Amino acid sequence: MQRRAFERVPANIKVKFFCCESHYDGTIMNLSDEGMYIRTDEMRFPFDSEIDLIIPLNLDVLKVPVKVMRMTKSSEFYDGLGVRVLKPTAHYIDFVNTCRNC
Known about the structure:
Layout: E1 9-19, E2 22-31, E3 35-40, E4 50-56, E5 61-74, E6 77-85, H1 90-100
């Protein structure tokens, strides 16, 4: 079994994103320097979508461009997605490191 290049950090962070003219709310369940897993309500958009995640911080907002790599299904609908961060910024890496230290 192949191991991940970066350790996943458990999280419970609210996030927003838009795709195909629809608004979605989700929760980041875990994250790393290069990816994250997000739980959300029923989703309806293409598998290989590139989207911008909006993560509200204390006095700021972190915008993270990602590509959907996989979707998870519970019951009859998709309710989770694994994403790869496109070009992680220093601000994003600082955010992940802050989560590691919580």
